[in-house]
Amino acid sequence: MISKFLATSLNTMLRKLIFLAAILVFVAKVSAQQPVENNRNAGSSALWAGVTAGPSLLMEKAPDSLQAEFRDYLNNLRSGWHYGLQAEYFFNPYFGAGIKYIRFTTSQDVDSIVTELFSKKYFISISNNMHIHTLIPMAYARLPLLNNKLSVVGGAGPALLLYRNIYKSIDDSASFKGASPGISASLRVTYQVIPNLSVGLQGNYLHAFLKGYTKDNGTTKEKESFAKEDYHNLSRLDFSAGIFYTIQFQKKR
User: Is the whole model's pTM more than 0.85, yes or no?
Assistant: First the structure.
C-alpha cells in the first residue's frame, strides 16, 4: 500500500528537482546571451557519451503491518546497484537532448524466515532477484564553468520501465514481468581531466508506479492489474560516478 505521507514526500521531492532544473535552464539561457568573446566555445556543438555506475534506493518501504521478518526482508530489497549508458548531443554549449539507459538490480535470499500459522511455527526459504530496465529520452541544460572544464548539467524527461522479478520458495517459483511509464530528473557535475575526457558525479530521481504484471510459473501465465491504492511504487534514487567522452564540433562561420 502506498501511504499518503510517502506520496506527498515524493511529490515534494519531484517539485524541488523540477524547480532546480528550471533554475539551471534560466542560468544557462542567461549565460548563452553573453557576448561571444566571453566564451571561446560559443557556437560549437558537442556529443557526450558516458558510462555510470553506483548505488540505488527504492523509495517505498514495506508496510508496518507485515510480520517483522517479512518486513525486514522486503526493506532489504529496497537497496541495490545500477549501471547506466547515456548519449547526449548539445546543439550549443548550453542546451541539448539525449537518451539514457539504466539497469537496476537488487536481490535477497533468506533460508529461514519464521512464520506462525494456527499457533504453529514454520520455517520457509524465499529469494527474489529483481531487475528494472529504464529507457529515458531527456532534454538537458548545461552551465559551463572554469573555462569550460567544469560542467553542471540538469536534465528531465519521460521514462519507460521494464520490470522483472524472479521469485522462488520451497514449493513455488515464478517470474513477474511488467512495464510502466514514468518521469525522471537528473543533476550531474563533471570535470575535464584531459581533453575530451571528463569524470563526474550524478544523481537521478525516477518517479513511476507499476499498475500490474504478468506472472509466469513455467506452466501458465496470469495477468494481474492492481487497484489504484495497491499500485507498486517503483520510484527510485540513483547515485553514480561516471566517465564521459566528448567530441566537439565547431560550426563554420
Answer: no
